Amino acid sequence: MQRGYVYYRTRPAGKHFDPAFRPELTPSQMLQLGVFGGRYLTDCRAEFPETWFSRAKLCASKHDAALNCFGVNASQPLAVWRRNGWISGQDPRGWFQWYCRYYSGRRSPDDARQIRRWRAIVRHIAAIRRNCEPGDLACRRRQRQAVLHWAYDSRKI
């Protein structure tokens, strides 16, 4: 999906994040819990630490919602992401690719935009809190899965 793109890691992995960006889950934890129907990062594993994939729930052949933490599909097709302008040229797979690279130590001019997008997900967290009993993981499973896709641990809501 991306050829010839080069970036530099200027920060230690997992450290020195923008103060406004406090993800609750690492990319590795997200992959272990089950995100994006297992289809994410299946063709570019060499870019990231092998330890991220040791217990990841992946499926290279198709999107499989059963692999998701909440067992539901909470993903939009890539065409929707492109149509809405959510994709930047440096990260053609979207926010999670940006997060994996940011977590790995890359910093870029797109960071502020992506962090704003991450912060905007709190509206979904508020909806879960407003409509669900604390700890009721069966309540709003699709919304919980979507929140998980943004590195918020929706199991704790």
Can you give a write-up of this model?
The protein has helices at 27-33, 78-83, 95-104, 111-120, 122-131, 141-148. Helix content is 32%, strand content 0%. It starts with 26 loop residues before the first helix and ends in a 9-residue tail after the last helix. The chain contains six helices and no strands. The model has no long low-confidence stretch (mean pLDDT 93).
Query: Given the helix and strand composition, which structural class is it?
Result: mainly alpha
What's the helical proportion of residues?
Answer: 25-40%
- Helix-strand sequence: HHHHHH
Our estimate of the beta-strand percent is under 5%
Task: Pick out the low-confidence regions.
Answer: none
Features:
single chain, 157 residues, mainly alpha, globular
Task: Give a quick precis of the structure.
The protein is mainly α and 157 residues long.
SSE layout and pairing:
Layout: H1 27-33, H2 78-83, H3 95-104, H4 111-120, H5 122-131, H6 141-148
